[in-house]
Amino acid sequence: MEPPSEPELHADDSGVTDDRLRLIFTCCHPALATDAQVALTLRTLAGLTTPEIARAFLVPEPTMAQRLVRAKRKISNAGIPYRIPPAHLLPERTSAVLAVLYLLFNEGYSASAGESLVRVDLCDEAIRLARTLVELMPDEPEAAGLLALLLLQDARRAARVDADGEFVALDEQDRTLWNRDAIDEGVAVLERVLRQRRPGPYQVQAAIAACHGRAEVASDTDWHEIALLYGELVRMTGGSPVVELNRAVAVAMADGPEAGLEIVDALDASGELSSYHLLPATRADLLRRLGRRTEAASAYREALALATTDTERKYLERRLSEVAGYR
User: Fold this and answer.
1) Which residue, 100, 113, 118, is CA-closest to 42?
2) Per mean pLDDT, which of 32-41, 65-74, 184-193 is the most reliable?
3) Structural domains of the chain in order of their starting residue, each with its CATH number
4) Is the pLDDT of residue 2 over 50?
5) What is the DSSP string of 270-309?
6) Quick one: pLDDT at residue 88?
7) DSSP 3-state assignment of 129?
8) Segment 213-258, tens digit of pLDDT
């Protein structure tokens, strides 16, 4: 699938002036399933590889490759017009466009492979496009919610890896390295959009990120509020297992590791996150906190076998060494 020509890009009444954003709207054709729209756009325009996209969707690489082939074939066989729609039809593509920007940022914020945990170029481009989308759709609350979320997340970027390239967990980060201007802007954007009283998943995630951003030291974090917000997010996302895993962490911080471990064990038994390294990594951390070192070591080894970046592996090896003398 080739991108539209320049003349076609500029001959429309969409109101979208940014060429990259115009192309994203063009790729997100409603004739395709939303997941297919997002995956194809990430592959065609954002330049993400099939393995990176597969990781974003938590599916095996061959499965994602087949989905991409089927989506391209449908466009070709059905003669789907490859052009940006007029302004009044943009809303039907907005949810897919938001998902593209969200996953583009996530790949930048926590790269799925390689030596570096963070890909600054992807983070910066996702934030730029989110700003542009908010300007284009000032009355779309989830666009503002996404911008607030990305700003609040990105504000912690400099503290996530230490001078030796080692991953630093959130509760261990040097918060003086956090970008307070970005946090203030993100909170301001969130507060404005919440006044519209049209909540959505991106706004809830931004509210969670704001709870972290407001805590000057880790012990100030309102984990009870975060656990409640994750509960609402689970409801909004139809029981997303990744969101449920994040809720488990918040519950563990609010009510103790046993409470969090109960949720993690249920997720483990469901098999929904069988290839997701953060499931055994989370379980290992909770077991470590409970003093169950042998079980924790086993879970850390499982997480290590699934981790895909050098930074993540080094962090897990360090944790494993703490509970099992790993070398």
Assistant:
1) 100
2) 184-193
3) 11-81+93-104 (1.10.10.10), 117-221 (no CATH), 222-311 (1.25.40.10)
4) no
5) HTTTTT-THHHHHHHHHHHHTT-HHHHHHHHHHHHHH--B
6) 84
7) helix
8) 999 999 999 999 999 999 999 999 999 999 999 999 999 999 999 9
Q: How confident is the model at residue 319, as a pLDDT?
A: 93
C-alpha distances (whole Å) from 172 to each of 142, 152, 161, 208 are: 31, 18, 11, 18
Dump pLDDT digits (tens) for 163-201: 887 889 999 999 999 999 999 999 999 999 999 999 999
DSSP 3-state percent helix, strand, coil across the chain (nearest 5): 70, 0, 30
Encode pLDDT of 71-100 as tens digits: 888 888 777 776 777 888 889 999 999 999
Per-residue tokens: 21: 């954003």
pLDDT at 116 over 90: no
CB neighbour class for 69 (10 Å; exposed up to 12, middle 13-18, buried from 19)? exposed
Report d(CA 24, CA 46) in Å as an integer. Answer: 9
Query: How many CA atoms lie within 13 Å of 171's alpha carbon, on the beta-carbon side?
Result: 9
Please state the φ and ψ torsions of residue 225, each to the nearest 5 degrees. -65, -40
Distance CA 159, CA 175 (A): 7
Q: What is the DSSP code (8-state) at residue 89?
A: G
Whose tokens are 């103790």? That residue is 256
